[in-house]
Every structure is written in structure tokens, then in C-alpha cells.
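Field: COMPLEX_INPUT
Field: COMPONENT_COUNT = two
Field: RESIDUE_TOTAL = 1138
Field: MODE = joint
Values follow.
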Amino acid sequence: MKNFTYHRPATVAAALPLLDAEWGKTELLAGGTDLLDRQKEYVSQPDKVVSLTGIGGAFKQIAAAGDAVTIGAGVKLADIAESKELAAFPALTGAAGEIAGPQIRNMGTLGGSLCQRNRCWYFRDEHVPCLLKGGKKCFALDGENEYHAVFTQGHPCVIVHPSTLAPPLIALGATAEVVGPKGTRTVPLEKLFQAPAKETQREHTLAPNEVLVAVKIPAKEPPRNASYEVKQRETSEWPLVQAAVAFRPFVKVARDVRVVLGHVAPTPLVSEAAAKALEGKEVTDATATAAGEAAAAGAKPLSGNGYKVALVKTVVKRAALLAAGARPYWEG
Amino acid sequence: MAEGWPKKRRLLGTKVKRLDGPDKATGRAKYSYDVNRPGMLHGVMLRCPHAHAKIKSIDTAAARKTPGFKALVLVLPAKDWIVVKAGGDALELRSVPNKKKKEKEEQRTVKVTPGVTILRKNKVVAVADLKPDDVVQVEVPDDAVGRELFFAGDEVAAVAADTEEHAEDALRAIKVEYEVLDHLVVEEEVIKNPKKKTTPGALEGNYDTTIKDATKGDVEAGFKEAEATVEGTYGVPVISHQCLETHGLVAEWDADGGLTVWASTQATVATAAALAGRFGLPPAKVKCVTHYMGGGFGSKFGPDVQGFAAADLARRAGAPVKIMLDREEEIIAAGNRPSATGTVKIGGKKDGTITAFAVDCYGSPGYTGGATINLNLMPYVYGDAVANMARSHKVVYTNAGVARAMRAPGHPQNCVLTEFAVDDLAAKLGIDPLVIRRKNLPPNNPKADKVSWAGRRHDIYTEQLDLAVKLSGWNEKWHPPGKGKPGAVRHGIGMALHTWGGFASGSTTPNECSVFISKDGTPTAETSTQDLGTAQRTVTAIVVAEVLGLMPTDVLVKLGESVYGFSSGSGGSTTCPSQAPAALLAAQAARDDLFKKVAPKVGADPKDLAVEAGKVVDAKNKKEWGWKEFCGRLGMDEAKGRGEWSLAISNEPENANISSGQVGGVQTAEVLVDSETGVVRVTHMVAVQDCGLVVNKLACESQVAGGVIMGLNYALFEENIFDKHTGRQVNPDMEFYKLGGLRDMPKITVHMQDMPERGVIGIGEPPTISTAAAIGNAVFNALGVRVPFLPLSPRRVLDALAKGGK
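Field: COMPLEX_OUTPUT
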């Protein structure tokens, strides 16, 4: 990899002045499971790496206080998966426990999961000049795209957002705490993401000189919630498609329904249509199936990923049933 | 008459833990990848990023100035020249024509610029050092200009530096301008453009349709006779060997001009010989060491480009050089298993008789290679029973790395295409596919030896089928395709059969083993053969210990060094059937030598002596000695014996059934297929396998289980995927080139049939052949819809379900 200078500040405040106003020259390092790979593959060639591993305190803690649980951006995925403070959010803990394998979960962090770069095999190939590396076209559009987006919504780059924690967190109504030169700002989590189209954009909306420090989940009367994902393998695998569902039971029906899809679009995707299909209804096989159909309705698959549309229907149905506490019919 | 295998087996056929298990588990075992020599440099290969290109220019000046840079090699054909005149910056040379090849003498004049390297006797020299008639090799950068490169990954140059990082920096400082040429990486594109030429060779395009069709009987008549006929197109992709230890070696030259390499190879002797040839050394001056090996599967029979480059860099730098490929290089440039796509038409009767079989197929070996390594598609296993068949086969050349032998070359592809068709025929006939399998087994040859495969193959397969049916619960679990318990998750069971050779090596030079017994009673066995992870080290110890009345842990096995006599490459499952008999003969000869030397000292006649567990016995005179006590009488002497073995030796009548060949195998797969997600989980595999005389039951079972695991990955996960626009493989990694982990593995029931009367037969390849076919058939049984192409990914399963099998 290209040589770089290395900084390991002890506080977020000390980290901020080390950051650049532009993307590309400076990279933040958390667990390193993404950045090191990109550097070794010459996909990212920063001059400076600012490690956040020296930052302690709240940055590395899960804290339940009042009506919210706050998870520091530096908390490890393995700790989220096993957290007692997060026991009311199986959508989140379950998704965290399914990420990759134990080695990755023991290194990877919440902040890393949300801010990592996409896994598109064209983006990750040094020799392919794709849009996100300053090139003129997206190679996946008419190339090999079986793992790419089925909700492209006109975006010129058809990556899928790689975070498996983002859909459950959005479904749970989480907010992100972001610290930058102008102080702290709070962002609804779905607003943290964007579909990048060029080299100077990222998969998130952070400025190059900002740091994601925490994610806060409202914890007053937590909703019923679940995440369901389809993976080809049991071991060290990305989901093909994921859905997170949250709702509040009211008598027998579901209220405040949130359905968020993962790994189907350049951002985590809130499905209003699927939520509407369940809103005010009892969650049954039939309504869950209808929600799945609704979620898949706007899909525009590419040449090689039509199968992901069928998966959208399945994961929404199964996540809804799991959230409702139904016995998983698919487990025999 | 050869003494042969002991009639009473004390160790043979039992479960013996591998001797090097603890060393491997703890990391004490040093693989070639682990070898670090004093002063060692690190080498890396520069590869063409384009699928097809010509070198327009190459400039190495900047690379040579990078920190830590030590040497650079351009990948060019090696050629010796004779100095005619040398002076100033000019060198006049003439070639050494190969008279056998009717080559003419060439002359060339070289202007010795800073980029030119001259080597004499494997040392870098200056023009001033040269005198007429010196034999030299000359590297001229301009010679690389115009060189055509045929795949993204084709080797251009290599550099060595003091650290891996500096080597990478130096590599990136080499400036190469390419003329990018048209490429074809997708097989269907080649077939659509048959005259388009992007690969080397005399063929007009990339599509070779000149292979002669093969026929037997009357296919048309056979199809007329059929009560049902089905036609299907099935296929398997190109996959990679994915050796856990990548290809490569460490090369070190000594002061006497000798070369030692620590290589990850399946052939220590052949690797040493190839290096000796390349660098003009007598074979005795090259030593290849492979004490431990992290998998080859048919892809590691020689030094390869990177091995020659490492040795070349080492001679130029005057220091040891290590080049081990990284994972991407391993996948794109170190071999692969060719694809196969075939349209199979099969006809049969309700009683299970296959009346006709016709296959029209193609496959790709990469940018060169040919049909031999590719496929030989005919009705697999059932070929001898089926009266009418036809095959046409075509080869599709693509701008991809070249195929190499991979664990049972041709067989897994052949098995998938045949066995898929068999189950589809059974479904059409409305019968259990087991009926077809039983009906079309190869018949026993009444003229052959009753002990041999040929004489009893029908019986062996029948017994294997009986065992597989019992162990899998076939009769209780099989249901007509798609007619299992309804629900989102469907159960299925499938079966496939395979066959393989596994004879002793056909090499004209026999495999050797030597056994020495010292006065402390420790036997040492020496052989140049390599242990690829097959437990060959333990096999040798078991055989020697069996003959000498000892335990395997009592035997010191020295293997994996090319200087320990001849051994052939570990291919074709020939190692155990070559090496176990060689060890047997060596141990028996050493024992006899021991008797001869010690008998006079203990007042016995060597003829009356025999070995029993831990002792030497004179039954006639009712005397016995402890093993160590007896060996102690050797004094300053040692006992020794040598054994050698080959296919030709095994074919001598007096050696019958010390080793032989031909095995069969039956595997069943049970799966759960989630019809809403397309995810396939294999829950239980049964593998029934014969391999003649079982030397080590534990290692045999491990080989079979390993074969099943490899076959499961072939069925569900593996595929080299290329982008047709860039011509580059999109998944040269372990992220999207998928291999299952522990949680993806099923329960595996292995049943080894032990048939000591047939002698030793190889076991490496057969158990991986039928796994994928059995799994594919189980998925068909679950869904009632054929998923025709591997891997059986959610995408393929859901696409097949969406089409409803149409």
C-alpha cells in the first residue's frame, strides 16, 4: 500500500483538526476491516490515516439513559450482538450477530458498519475506472450485477449499501450524532445515507471533516422489531437481501410500522409501501405477504439480479412475522 | 513370488492418527510459505491488467531506483547464446541451434545499455568479463516489446526487494505501455463469434469445432427403442483450485552454483529437474524441498513462471528470494478446472435400461490448453452398459488463465452432465432413479481376474449401492421429484456414482523408498515423495512399522526432498499405490538385511527368523529377542533396504495385487431447499468408497470427507466470474468467490470398503467426483424442477423455479 502518516488522537476533539475538507487524502480508521483492504488493493490511497481506536469513554460504550440507548460509534459489532442494554432490539442485535464471522465482528465497529464503503466488485478493482473512482461509467449496469441494486431509482451507480446495521437502526427510529468543526449535529439515521455518483461522494452524508460519534435509539416502549436476511452461505457472507421491520402492537393490529430494506439499493431503503400495507392491520401470513409484495412493487432489476425481487418479498414477509412473534414457518 | 502384504495385519487398515498432526495444528510444521532464509529478499510479479494486449514499451529505470530494490527479471523465453565478440558496449552473439529441431544458427548484436542484463554461469557479468565462446543469457528490455499477453494476469516481469512493501513499490514503478486488443472472456460470446481470434495458436478463431465425434452402436435406433426420452442442457462453471497455501517457492543459490528451492509443489523431483533444465545445471545440483504442503489438487507440478522468476531474481541479486502468490494471483493465474456445458439427450425403458445417450458439449480451458485436459464426455460409469451413444465436443478458448489438472480431471463435469440426465429420465419414466443406476452398472468381465475391478465391478457397485441405500435411508426418504412434504422448505435426496483409476505411477523410472535400521532400532524411511496433506508421511510409517513389528511413531520418515531418490508427481491418485509398495519392499529388504547381519551374532539362521510385534523370533529354536536388543547387535553396521515400484512393476505377474487400480463410489446427498429464498442446505452426505487395501482407515475417511467438502463447494458456491467488458475476473478473492465454512457443512457419513486382496489403490481423486452431481439431483428431487447449472445459488434456484423447469 501507499505510505501514509498515522495519527491516533485520544479524543474526538483532537481528531477533528487532523481531518481534511476534501475526501481522499485522509481516512478514518476504526476496526480496519474495510480500510486496510482498500489500501492494500490500492482502491484508497490516503496520505494520512486518523485512527479512532485511541478514543475511549462513551465512544466505546453502550449506555441506557432515560428514554434512549446510546451506542458509541466505536462499539464492536460483537458487543452489539451480545448487549443486554439492547435486548429490546432483536432486529439490531440479531443483524449484528449475523455479520461476516467472529473475527470481523470482534474488530468491526458500529461506526465502521455505517460508514464503510460499498462492496461492488468493480469499485474494489483498482484497474476498473468506475464512477466512484473518477471514471465515466458504472460497469455494473451492463456487466456482472447479480449482487447489485434492484431499486436503482435512476442512480448512475448501482451499488448496494453494505451496512446490515443501518436497516434495523432506521426501522427503530435511531438518530446519528455527528461532530464536526461547527459542533455536534443530530441526524435521523436515514438521512445519514446517500447514493454516491462520483469520486467526491461517499455512501453517507458526513462531511470529510466530521466524525460519527454515536447512534441513539429511542427506548421508551420499544416497538416489536426483527430483521431477516437471506445469505447464500452460513459463514462469512454478505446478505443478498435484508429487511428490518418495527411496529407497535395496538390491540391486535400494527401501528407506526417501519419497513427498511437492506442490500437492494445504493442506500438503506425505507419502504413506505410495505409499511402502509401493514399499518393498522393484524400481522398475519396474508398481510405479511402483502407487505412483501408492496415492498417489491417498484423494483427495477438489472440483467442479472431479478431473483433479488423475489427475495425482497420473502424477507419483508419473514421479518414482519418474526417481529409479530410468529413461529418461523421456514425452520421446519 | 513377491512376499507381498502381510497376511496378518496389525496396523494396516486400522485408524492411525497422522504423525504430523500436532505439528500442523500447533504451527510447528514449516510449510514452504513459512520458510525465511537469512538475507532473503521478497519477489512479486508484474501482471498485465488487460485481458488481451501487446507490450508497446517497457521502462524499468525508475523501478531500479526505488528504495530496497535488488533485482528485476523480464518474463521472456530463456535462451543460451555463445559470445562471438565482446567489447565496449557491444556484444556479438550466435545461438546454439538445436539440431534435433533443425534450428539454424542465429546471430545477434546487442547494444549493452543500462537495462541489459548479461548472465554467465548464473552470475551477472559485465561485457568486460566476457571472452569469446562464453555461454551467456542476455536480457534485453526491447525483447519484451511486441510480446502478446492473453489474459488479465499474464506475467510481464518480476522484481525483488528487501521487503514485500518495497518490492510492491518497485513493481509499480515499472512503466509498461500496452496496446489493448480485443478480448473474449464469456464462452457464449465466443460461440456467437466463432471466427474472432483473441487467443494464440493456429486455429482460425477461438472456437475449436474440429474434434472428432465419438459414437458407439446405433443412437437413432436406441432412441426409437426408448419408452421415454428427455433432453436437457446442463453446465458447470470454471472454478479455481483455491489451494490454501498459494503457489510459490523460496530460491537460494549456494557458493558452488547449486540451487535449493523450498517449493509448494506436488512434484519435488520434477520441479528440481525443471529448474536444472532452465538454469543449465546438472540435476544433482538442484534440490527441491517440500516438507509440508498446503494443497495442490493438480495445479502444482512444476516451478511455474513465478518459480523460475524467483530463482532468476535470486541468481541476479546474489541472495535468496521468496515469491508466493497472493490470493488474487492464485485464482487468476495458477490453474483452474475447465467448465462444461452439454446438451444431453437420453432415452430409456421403464425397467431402467438406458437405450441411447447423446451429448453435445463444450467447455473452456482458458486461452490455450486443449481438449485433453478438458473433458471426455460420455455416459459416465454407465458407458460400458449403454449400447448406443454419441458425443460431439467443442473447445472454447477465452482470454482467461489456463486450466490445469484438478482433482479428477474431467470426471466431476462428466458426472454432473450424465447423472443429471439420468435423474431427469427417471422422472419422465416415473421411476426411482436407483432403478436406472442398478440396471446400467458396468458388467463384470468374466475373463478378468475375479479379485480385480474388471472381474467384479458390477458386484462392487451393487454392494456400494446397497450400503448407500442403507446408510442414507434412501428407501424411506426418496419421493418422486417435488412430491415431498409440502411447505416453503423442501426436502430432497439425490445420488450419483463415480469411478477412477488410482494405479501406481506409469512413470518409466520407478518410485523409490529406502529404509535404514540403526543399532538403536530406529528405522528411517527416505523418499522424495511429497505429502500434500494426504498423510503420505503416515502411510510410509505405517507400512514400515507393520513390516518391522513396530508402531508408526517409532519410524522416522524423511520425505519431500528431491535428493531422496526418484518419485513421480502426486497426480492421478498414484502416490499411495506407488509409494506404499516401495516402502513395503524397502522395509522387507531392510529386515532381511538385518537378519543376515545379526543372525550370525546370535547363533541363528536368517531363514528361521521372523518379526513379531516388538520382537524378533526364531520359532524353530524357540528363541526370541526384543527389537532393540536384536538391532543393538548391529554394532557399527546398519541394515538397509531399498524398494521401487511403478505401474510396470505392479503388472508383473509375481507382483499381482500389491497395488492395482480402478475404484467405484456411490454418494447420496440430502438437502433442504428453501423455495422462497433459493438457499440450498446440504444436511447429510453419504460416501461409500473402495480403494483396495486400506492402509490407514482414518486418513482414507478424511480424504473422502475432504473430497465431499470440495464437491459441496463446487455444487453450491464456486465460480470464476468474468466481466465481458473489462475482460477481468470480478471475484478473484474469497469474498465473492465463495467457499463454504464449517456451518455450511453437512453431516458426512463415510463408509470405506477394505479389500486387501486387491492391493493398494489411490484415493485422492475419486471421492470428490460425484458429490456435486448427487447434490444437484437432491435439489431436483426436492423441487421437481431441474436447476441445470452449478453453482446452485439462490439466483439459479429462484430463476429455475420462476421458469418452472422450462
